[in-house]
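Reply to thread "Modeling small-molecule complexes from scratch"

Following up on the discussion above, here's a worked example others can learn from. I took a protein sequence and the SMILES for pyridoxal-5'-phosphate and predicted the complex. Inputs first:
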Amino acid sequence: MQAYILQGETTQPGAGSRHRAYTSLHCRPVPRRKEPVVSRRVRIGCVTTFARFLDTHPDYATTSALDELRTSEYGRLDSQGHVYLDYTGGGLHADSQVLEHTRLLSEHVFGNPHSASPSSTDTTRLVERARARVLAYFNGTSEYTAVFTLNASGALKLVGESYPFEPGGRLLLTVDNHNSVNGIREFARGKGAAVDYAPLTMPELRIDASEMDARLAQADPARGNLLAFPAQSNFSGVKHPLALIDAARGHGWDVLLDAAAFVPTNRLDLREVTPDFVTVSFYKMFGYPTGVGCLLIRNARLSRLHRPWFAGGTVNFATVQGRLHVLSPREAGFEDGTLNYLSVPAVEIGLRHLERVGIDMIQTRVQSLTDWLLTELLALRHGNGRHMVRLYGPATPTERGGTVTMNFYDPNGHLLDYRRIEELAGLERISLRTGCFCNPGAGETAEGLTEDDMRAGLADGTDISLPRFLQVMQQRGGKSAGAIRVSLGLASNFADVDHFLTFAAGFRDQTTITIGAVTFDIESCRVIRDGS
Ligand SMILES: Cc1ncc(COP(=O)(O)O)c(C=O)c1O
């Protein structure tokens, strides 16, 4: 029988547990490593912990097919000792997706789709099949048009540049938005539309309903008014109410739903909710391919978007002498140049994989694990009884997904540098994310940063980086600017969460001095290491 080692303790799988069948899957061997700076004081047997988890989360047992899948399709995680906790950053691909795609490419001759040759026709057939599959997956077949883009940001930019913003019209954003949505305000401002933000409530970081209602009521229905919000926050994991779509429409708004962080673990049914525009990145849903996203446009709103230019592939006719062009209808008018036509067929493969696995099962598993993670993080205390972790966003799994954002504090309530924590996590082969996650608004609200703080940060001029800003905020009452994010997804299991919790517990009674100094910087969402 294999012995499982958890932080120096040896347990026999199944011993003392009524969940014998699960233990080997959930208490995976942890390679012994050189003890990092953080001392290990918490030594809980994983087997006992897993039994406790199952007792309180019996639904998890119904998702055991995902454990088999992890072994057969994501075996590289465990064979290499990875603890992957960045599904909101990017999903992981199944081995079979890549194999099937490689086989497809090696068995066919695919040419540029812009002609009638056999190789071109074969490409077009597969691209259109993938498009049909995307529409069917989201249940939007007859009511929506699917435009392939580079990623969700590309889809968001298409809406931003094409939406009829005008003086008297409005762009309403939620404070909780990815920068690729925030960036749309530049198009709106440029065309003279008013730009406004609906604030969040504390501490749950949900949209403030009454503030939102007041702003929705301000629209002049005769003008172009666009509301843009995320179905799920990439900062806090909050699921924002999709009922907002109809409510906003009733006041004369078009609605852009950024579904990038929602669709990897939730079903989006476009017969039940009907946003005018929806944006996704496929690598977040099933890991592969990267470089392909999608804009879903409600057909009833297609004519509202006007491309500000034309390109190869987007015109039915263009003349140089006549200085005229006729844009192609529907998706063709939005897909600039040549599509990533070798990767697009891999979207169909990925969707088939996701359908076989079942999004509901993924959601059940992620929800159980998230609840456990939240409960256990909140229970972590220093020797003097003070909380070790501050969570941002809802502390229960109600109306939230598997993205959990936090900061660690020492026994005197001083912030521990999240960059150092990321570094220490890396020593344990834990992949998590730190920084601002390209969502400044949610971070500013969560961390209580004010407009004055922002001005203080920018006082030295525009040559500001996140590390420098963090320093300034530390001088202004020990505030943080940035946090640690762990996120769960399709291939997550109990061992991943347990490993992170054990890592987190290692910060008990630690201080900035004892954990050591960070050796890399994060500037504008990019990691910069010495010599890189
Ligand atoms: C909610 C949300 N919207 C948009 C994006 C942008 O996605 P991409 O970088 O794939 O364009 C992200 C990426 O993390 C996201 O989480």
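What I'd highlight from this example: The two ends are 45 Å apart (CA to CA). The pocket of pyridoxal-5'-phosphate is lined by residues 88, 151-153, 178, 180, 230, 234, 258, 260-261, 281 (CB under 6 Å). Questions welcome below.
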